[in-house]
């Protein structure tokens, strides 16, 4: 079947909501993604998301647009916004909800237009998958920017998920990989999807990656739970 995320969104959109998406991660965490939360309006969004949307300017690409909450908000404000998602179900839901410009594609396969603002919310940088892919991912994003364009993104430092010792240090298993690399599996209505890699990146690591790729990286907002909002721009020479 595939596209578990899209199927769940379509069910909710069509009034067939009976359960949420379950997630399993390589951190031995089980969790749920409540479907109503994926259809939230501006007033229901966390402050970090609201701040991100207020930073948007010019022509906008909403990467990983999901059910289209951010695209719809910006469209209502008069922005020229395109929603992009690799889930065909998500794109169908966005279309039904009234998002005018949509692209069904992974971000790394997309290079058709240039934008003033790239939005990567709900830890959109996670699409990079791993720290080793982050350079390539940032370079691709930068290639989609118009002159003076910006990338507005959030992420979390998931160090808090590891045990802490009395000195305040953290016990991180020595697996040879960065601790923010997580593999997720989604389950919906007893069907499990394919595992996928996801990246949570702490701000200092993101800053270093931006530095290496000729990008400025500005911390815009720190959330209450190790999360943050950042703005990336190309260096001017």
From TrEMBL:
<protein>
    <submittedName>
        <fullName>Class I SAM-dependent methyltransferase</fullName>
        <ecNumber>2.1.1.222</ecNumber>
        <ecNumber>2.1.1.64</ecNumber>
    </submittedName>
</protein>
<keyword id="KW-0949">S-adenosyl-L-methionine</keyword>
<keyword id="KW-0489">Methyltransferase</keyword>
<dbReference type="Pfam" id="PF13489">
    <property type="entry name" value="Methyltransf_23"/>
</dbReference>
<dbReference type="GO" id="GO:0032259">
    <property type="term" value="P:methylation"/>
</dbReference>
<dbReference type="GO" id="GO:0102208">
    <property type="term" value="F:2-polyprenyl-6-hydroxyphenol methylase activity"/>
</dbReference>
<dbReference type="InterPro" id="IPR029063">
    <property type="entry name" value="SAM-dependent_MTases_sf"/>
</dbReference>
<dbReference type="GO" id="GO:0061542">
    <property type="term" value="F:3-demethylubiquinol 3-O-methyltransferase activity"/>
</dbReference>
<keyword id="KW-0808">Transferase</keyword>
